[in-house]
Amino acid sequence: MLDVRGTRFVDRSGRHVLLRGVNLGGDCKLPASVSGTHLRDDFADHRTVSFIGRPFPLAEADGHLGRLARWGFNALRLLTTWEAVAHAGPGMRDEAYLDYLRAVCLKAAAHGFAVFIDFHQDVWSRMTGGDGAPGWVFEAVGLDFTRFGAADAAHLMQQRYDSAMGGRQAAYPQMSWGSNYRLPANAIMWTLFFGGARFLPGFRPGGTPVQDLLQGEYLAAMTAVAERVADIPEVIGFDTLNEPDTGMIGRPLTYRHCARSVEQPEPVRPGLAMSPLDMLLIADGRPREIPLVVRTGQGFEVEPAGHRVANPAGVRIWRDGVACPFAEAGIYDGETALRPDHFDRADGAAIDPERDHVLPFFHAMAATVRRVRPDWLVFAEVNPFKAFTGMGFPDGMPDRCVNASHWYDFATLVTKQVEPRRATSYAAQLGVIKRLGDALGESGAPTLIGEFGLPFDLDQGAAYAAWRAGDTAPWEDHIAALGAMYDALDTHLMSGTLWNYTASNRNDAALGDGWNQEDLSIFSLDQATHDGDPDSGGRAVPGFARPYARAVQGVLTEQGFDAAGGVFRIAFDADPVIAAPTEIVLPVAHFPRGAAIEAVGCERLADPAPGVIAVRALETGPLLVVATAL
């Protein structure tokens, strides 16, 4: 259905294609039986859960997908997880769920969406404060996830939040889930996943080298999904792994990351600044006094805030009778670092986590899905903190990759405040990420921003209070901020999939999208109050239901929208040899009565679909199409 040509997506006719879509959906991170992370959960049923019904029951699919099509989207980043496919145990697959996921893909195809499958994770798993991996992987490597919270090895909303109290709570600060990347459970699992063969070559749980075990089971789950959807042309590829981390790889054993440096350029994240040795000792049941880093309130800016004793009770997270494999390998003894360079140097040279450990995984993943269908695209991601600062993909990536890096206005995510002046920098920030794609491979690769979006609970949920008071359109700030994001995408002629559409979303500070108090869904049940209105449930629809050229008869060179004036324009280098016409999406949110079309050098064709116009180029060279709202 789609391929890549340099930095462009192209269809079978050779047209330049833009993908403008949405992530479906935020609650796919959780089993269908779990209403949200605000509820207590000991994960005791982790082997028997079901994800059937995420992102929505099949009976509701046409309603949701029809709404997304009406809003002008043509692509879906469809979320699944390793846990959804393989929660029952190694080598076991949830066949009923795979049938359900296939049915969702078929429904999406029927509504005209290009789909790429995202094997999603955040901070490794539900048992470590996020989503992704099944619970049995901890048992397989000898860890007891029931002890993670007590040992300060993971930060879980399910254990810290009082659902009876509701609202915002100091015990679980907003956007604090990401601190898990700096805690022992995450660090150990990511190190084993990407680097077990190098750093613990003798660690063979169940007789299988640990890295082979973890990556093998992950890729087997991906294979199961790939085989189930391989005959659906509209499924165009797979994401490698959402927002991967590399754990302790590349870090000196005793190094605590409290400030950026040439040697350690990654942004400092808030939370406890544990060294790899701290993490291993805490995991082995030893209290440790650790520097604490806190946000100053703006974006990536942080500052030291003293120290805190982690794991004061000395809880050990290795299962009873299981020795710490890192200690057994002679990496540390007691509190002594025996091999201080174990994770950051090899044969006298510095280890590059992406080049030396993530790149081989990219190739293994690409080979895995392409054994099932050779034409699939690979939507590649590196650590988003590194991508945001321009630290890109390693040389030697698989062919026909897409730069699927993520971008957010991080200050807005953290503060839940929109500052219009920040929007002036959006195009420059996205330009940093686009350059990663431009440099990917011999001739560059398309950039599709895999996630971008906006919290809807801005200003302590002011829009929700206004809605309850009778204001049916309290989204002025949201529309302006989303519009600025799409303006930046247009500047670079970028594709992107907005985060997110959650069918179960509620205007509730405890719940939101159902996961760790995030609330970025462009749909909410609390806004779905008018059965006769096809936009019912939408939040800030004019902000994201934007015009764009979805397929161009040649090469798109410019695209821009004046929302206030209702004028959309594109410029392109036309190639009349291409038989298929240029198609432009004009969503009803901005063009309720249609548009006057000026297309010099083109002829207007019959509209291929509601809200879409088509023009055929009659001559070669630069042409301009302007649509003005009637």
UniProtKB/TrEMBL annotation:
Any GO BP annotation: lipid catabolic process
Q: Is Hydrolase among this UniProt entry's keywords? A: yes
Q: Where is the signal peptide?
A: none
Question: What organism does the UniProt record list as the source?
Answer: Sphingomonas alpina
InterPro entries reported in the protein's UniProt record? GH, GH5_C, Glyco_hydro_5, Glyco_hydro_5_CS, Glyco_hydro_b, Glycosphingolipid_Hydrolases
- Please provide the record's keywords in A-Z order: Glycosidase, Hydrolase
Instruction: Please give one Gene Ontology molecular function term for this protein.
Output: beta-glucosidase activity
Note the PROSITE patterns from the entry: GLYCOSYL_HYDROL_F5
Q: Which named protein is this? A: Cellulase family glycosylhydrolase
Q: Name one Pfam family in it.
A: Glyco_hydro_5_C
Indicate yes or no for the key word Hydrolase.
yes
Report domain Glycoside hydrolase family positions. Answer: 67-124
Q: Which family does it belong to?
A: Belongs to the glycosyl hydrolase 5 (cellulase A) family.
What positions does the domain Glycoside hydrolase family 5 C-terminal occupy? 546-605
